[in-house]
Structures are given as C-alpha cells and as structure tokens.
C-alpha cells in the first residue's frame, strides 16, 4: 500500500518558503524606499537650483516673447521657461531614482517601464524646443506676410497671414511629434491630402474666375498689332475711333461717349476698318480788308 503524503511537512515547507521570501524581500523594500526618498530630495534640490540659475540668466525674456504670440494669448496661459525646464529636471532626476529603486526592489517589469520613460524625456525636451522655435518663426512669418500684403492694399491681408501661420505651425507640430518618437505617418498623409486639396481648389477657383482675363490677355497678344490709336473701326453697330489700347480692352470714342470693348470681342466679332480718324474741320480764314491809303506793311 502507498503511504499517505506528509501534509504537515508540506505545509511547513510552504510556510518556511513564504517566511524566507518575506525576510529576503524586506531588506530590498527598505533599500528601495531609501533610494526613493533620496531621489525626491535630490530632484527638488536640482529643480530649485535650475530655477534660480535660469531666472538670473534671463531665460524668461524668451518666454515673454513667446507669450506675445497671438496663438498663445488665445490659450489664456502664461509660459515661464525657467519653471518649465526646472519641472522637467525635477521629473527627470526623480525617474532616474525611481528606476534605481525598482531595480533594488527586484521588480523587472516596472524597471523596464521606468527606463523607457527616462529615455523618452530627452526626445520630449528636443520636441518642446522645436515647437517653441517653430511657433516664434510662424508668428514672424505671419507678421511679415500681413505687412507685405497690406502694403499692396490686399483686403484679406490678415487672413492671408493667419493661413501662413497655421500652415507653418502644422508642419512644426508634425516635426515635433516625429522628434518625440510618435508615429506621424497617418497625420502626414492627412496633411498632404489637405494641402493638395487646398491647392487644387485654389487653382480651380482662380482659373474659373480669371478665365475672361486670360482670354482677353491672349487676344491682346494676337490682336494688338492689328490696331492702333486713332484708327476708326466698326464692330456690329458700334463705330468709333480708338483712343486707348491695353492688355484687356480697347477704348472707342463714339461721339461724346467712350465705349470699352474687351479684346476677346475682336477675335469673335467682325471688325470693319474705316481708316484713320477724320481730321477736325478748320474754319476757313476770313479775308482781311485794309482801308484805302493804309499800308499793312511798315
């Protein structure tokens, strides 16, 4: 017959294994807590030192320029670069000590996760710097385009500047996300489709709206050499003398009125040449009679 298992021995081995695990884990827990407390202290120390140094060297002046950007003002937030960088340093140092603490504790999964966060911070800082510089460049381009368009008396100068700002800002955001290690393939594809659609819509709308202008301009190239100022012509029921020729129209003096005729009409209508303008009638000189005995010559 088979002997029954030693239940008491099994239970004792299980309890002893648990007790040994607890006693072996307890020193690691204390060491992990000590490392973590030390990390909190050093992180606060480095953060305060960075805040004082950055404030004294005038880094916040660059942040003030960033706060002047209209896009940032609309967010109703104030950016202080010294505080932002000091916070980044605080969490960076703290994450380093959290990594050491989890390694001391022996939890491998948490250690790998913290290490990935620590490796992500430098890329995040580079992306933030790129975004800040990009916003300032976009705002400078917006002001330049608005000023230039206003100098040419373009009514929608401000809207044009806003479009340029949005375009540059979107490019900068995509670049910053890519620098941070975020996959931007879908965003880039959507952006390319958006830009392509906008260009196609603009080209189509501009082409349809300027169709008549282009027709008149091309007609001017072919017809301008056939007409000259002072020439009399007749188009349908309109007859007059050419007083002006430009790239899109000709002006006819029809009696007391001036008629404007598009250049494209000269290609589509029958034009009758009537020759040069008729000279103005001059009054015949009146005979001059001298009284008898008076010589007109000295």
Q: Could you explain how this protein is built, in words?
A:
The chain has 298 residues and is of the alpha+beta class. The chain has a domain at 220-276: SH3 type barrels. Helix content is 67%, strand content 10%. It has helices at 7-56, 59-67, 70-74, 81-105, 108-151, 157-179, 185-209, 211-223, 263-268; strands at residues 231-235, 238-245, 249-254, 257-262, 271-276. A five-stranded antiparallel sheet has the order 4-3-2-1-5. The chain is elongated.
Strand arrangement in the largest pleated sheet: 4-3-2-1-5
Unreliable segments (pLDDT under 50, ≥5 consecutive)? 280-284, 286-298
Give me the count of strands: 5
The CATH C-level class name of the domain at 220-276: Mainly Beta
Q: What general outline do the C-alpha atoms trace?
A: elongated
SS-derived structural category: alpha+beta
Largest sheet: 5 strands, antiparallel
What is the CATH topology of the domain at 220-276?
SH3 type barrels
CATH architecture of the domain at 220-276: Roll
What attributes does this structure have?
alpha+beta; SH3 type barrels; 298 residues; five-stranded antiparallel β-sheet; 9 helices; 5 strands
Gist?
The chain has 298 residues and is α+β, with helices and mostly antiparallel strands.
List the helices and strands and how they pair.
Elements: H1 7-56, H2 59-67, H3 70-74, H4 81-105, H5 108-151, H6 157-179, H7 185-209, H8 211-223, E1 231-235, E2 238-245, E3 249-254, E4 257-262, H9 263-268, E5 271-276
Helix pairs in contact: 1-4, 4-5, 5-6
């Amino acid at each position: 017959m088979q002997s029954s298992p030693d239940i008491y021995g099994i239970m004792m081995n299980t309890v002893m294994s648990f007790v040994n695990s607890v006693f072996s884990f307890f020193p690691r827990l204390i060491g992990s807590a000590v490392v973590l407390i030390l990390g909190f202290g050093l992180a606060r120390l480095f953060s305060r030192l960075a805040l004082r140094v950055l404030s004294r060297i005038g880094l916040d002046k660059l942040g003030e320029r960033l706060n002047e950007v209209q896009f940032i003002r609309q967010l109703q937030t104030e950016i202080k670069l010294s505080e932002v960088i000091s916070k980044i340093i605080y969490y960076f140092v703290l994450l380093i000590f959290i990594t050491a603490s989890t390694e001391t504790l022996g939890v491998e999964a948490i250690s790998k996760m913290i290490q990935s966060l620590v490796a992500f911070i430098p890329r995040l800082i580079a992306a933030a710097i790129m975004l800040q510089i990009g916003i300032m460049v976009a705002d400078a381009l917006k002001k330049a385009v608005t000023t230039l368009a206003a100098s040419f008396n373009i009514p929608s100068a401000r809207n044009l500047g806003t479009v340029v700002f949005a375009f540059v800002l979107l490019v900068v955001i995509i670049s910053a996300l890519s620098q941070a290690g975020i996959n931007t393939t879908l965003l880039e594809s959507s952006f390319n489709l958006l830009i392509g659609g906008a260009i196609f819509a603009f080209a189509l709308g501009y082409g349809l709206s300027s169709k008549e202008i282009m027709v008149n301009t091309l007609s001017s190239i072919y017809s301008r050499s056939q007409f000259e100022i002072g020439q009399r012509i007749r188009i349908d029921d309109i007859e007059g003398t050419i007083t002006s020729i430009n790239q899109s129209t000709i002006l006819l003096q029809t009696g007391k009125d001036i008629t404007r005729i598009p250049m494209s009409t000269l290609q589509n209508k029958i034009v009758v040449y009537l020759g040069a303008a008729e000279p103005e009638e001059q009054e015949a000189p009146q005979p001059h009679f001298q009284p008898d005995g008076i010589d007109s010559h000295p």
